[in-house]
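EI: anyone free to look at a 374-residue chain?
SC: sure, send it
EI:
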Amino acid sequence: MSFSEKDILYALSFVVEPDLKKDVVKLNLVSNIKTEGNNISFSLQVNNPALHNKKRIIEACQLHLDRVLGTSVELNIDIQPIKKEADMPKQNKVLPNVKNIIAIASGKGGVGKSTITANLAVALAKKGYKVGLVDADIYGPSMPMMFDVEEEKPMPVEINGRNLIQPIESHGVKLLSIGFFANTDQAVVWRGPMATRALTQLFTEANWDELDYMLIDLPPGTGDIHLSLVQTVPVTGAIIVSTPQNVALIDARKAVGMFKLEQINVPVLGFIENMSYFTPTELPENKYYIFGKEGVKNLAEKFNLPLLGEIPLVQSVREAGDAGRPAVMQENTPQSKAFMDFADNVIKEVEKRNEAIAPTAKVEVTHNKGCSTN
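SC: here you go
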């Protein structure tokens, strides 16, 4: 038997912190939830970690988890004193006016991650949100083409005595990409530290203003750029892109594992399946599962994570990307509806995440063996 994080948090919402007189979920005192079979472990901050108080709150957790989950569970709770204000994560000084920062990752290249990111950004903008997009795929930036701004160059702007980069705006989305700073035919051949510095500048030296959502299109894999991201900004959550094919699913699992590392601990909002099926124009009722069927759905269930959407394999999606007009801009097509539904699900999951979990802390590498949060 496996339990979802949502169900566990719901059960723990009935547990009241004895001194503060509010439930431990609303107070953001629960973290690092892990499940394996009938075993549940998590960290819990309490105001008074004295032995009698710890025993009392552990008993309350056991009672409500057993009641809500409908079975007796094995608990392992790491009780810690509530962090004082000086110990709490510092306010996001890099992007103080950005409400939600979403990382889009895949693990494997070629699954359409950039297409998914571009269409999600435009879908959110169509719904009236203020949206920014950082093309962090340092080695293969494609957003300038997908937004039809390949010939544009971000201009410097002076804000409060600082010279900042002004993002390019297209289709209602503010955009920065390393592709703006390299020639079309120029290969970006950088070592890790140089790539990291370039990425950091897209966040720290740009005039992003107020945003409801900032999407970050990550490169494939799990490496320097991904760690640099969580060192630079507090990421609200991650979305994992995959096709239904087994080869892609293997790397999608690794991407989830990276974000779930204790040192990084970025919530995964869910999976999006790209190229789910092919439907010929002349046979609109037919679906051909070229890369397999329900592969991402099954993987999402294994991780107790939502499937945020299924995007069909349609020629016009590719053509729209090449033309710089993401497919979600098309009117009354199955693919545009799929992208808009995907955006709705992302909005819901972000709202749930913000209600249930404390803000993600920025990661600081303090030594060669690991990370700490700040």
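EI: The longest strand covers residues 268-278.
SC: 👍
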